[in-house]
Structure prediction request, 84 residues.
Amino acid sequence: MKNIYAKAWICVGVMMLGIVVLMSSLAFLGNKIMLYICLVLGIITFLAGIILNFIIVRCPHCGSHIGRVYGSRCPYCGEEYSRK
Ligand SMILES: [Zn+2]
Prediction:
């Protein structure tokens, strides 16, 4: 996949999933083991989204990590993301 916007949104999706898992831990307040499992899984998923972002959301031209994709040009080299 070469679409940097799609990659950025996948990472956001993974982070959101982590938050959902964290939230779902509230359903297990009476069950400490399940509560801890959900908390740990949620944090791991959230961190995975951040790490994934660092690994795959990069400028196709200069390889700089962009993080949040603003506009259609790389803030480091000024090239357009879509142009290859
Ligand atoms: Zn660049």
Q: What stands out?
A: Helices lie at 4-24, 32-56. Residues 32-56 form the longest helix (25 residues). DSSP finds two helices and no strands in the chain.
